[in-house]
Design goal:
By secondary structure, this protein is mostly beta strands. Strands 1-2-3-4-5 form a five-stranded antiparallel sheet, with no helix packed on it. The radius of gyration is 17 Å and the shape is elongated.
């Protein structure tokens, strides 16, 4: 679902994810490589305004994660919506595709 599909006064969200390391891939020949992980997940959540009707969204999907070195993460996830919800556009977000590239460090 599109991020911020429901913005309400009250809500809840739950997620469960299973990850399995599929191997290690090195970006540099001398490196030991980082883990490549397969992921499967299920998400659900609901939101409502005070005194209003609750609306729920649920989805399931698969993903691939790669951490080439400490502090770096690349991931792509594809979700399947379990609720029929009309969207005004047909972007990758509307299609349930999520990309992330993250760099972090300790300070």
């Amino acid at each position: 679902y599109r991020e911020n599909t429901f913005v309400r006064d009250n809500g809840w969200a739950a997620s469960i994810e299973y990850r399995k390391e599929m191997g290690r891939v090195a970006l540099l020949p001398e490196g030991e490589g980082g883990p490549v992980e397969f992921a499967a997940f299920a998400d659900s959540g609901a939101a409502r305004d005070r005194g209003g009707e609750s609306r729920q969204l649920s989805g399931v999907g698969l993903g691939l994660r790669y951490a080439p070195w400490k502090g770096a993460l690349a991931q792509v996830y594809k979700a399947r919506a379990l609720n029929n919800l009309q969207t005004p556009t047909k972007t990758s977000q509307d299609a349930g595709v999520h990309f992330l590239f993250q760099l972090s460090w300790d300070f």
